[in-house]
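Bench notes, afternoon.
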Amino acid sequence: MLKKLHIQNYAIITELEIIFSGHLNIITGETGAGKSILMGALNLVLGERADSGVLQDKEKKCVVEASFIVKNNEGIRAFTEKYELDNEEEILLRREIAASGKSRSFINDTPVNL
């Protein structure tokens, strides 16, 4: 379950943090309000191809972090064991995109390849 989404320097977002409840969360807004931008940031942290064109400020890197509660998830437990990652009740995914377009990905602060 998605717990938190933190976005820096992505599209029209300078910095934003959304903390989701453990219940139903609905994102609504008028056309152009940024709903698709939120989904784009989430897709980016989940592995979608990075493009330096998404940087709001071309002088700074873009950082998107998503925190997931994965307690009692056998698939995640097996994955973290296989790749020797910390196996905790919460997992943090982070994606950084430099102005050059180069990106780096992390799981619980451990660098990973996509």
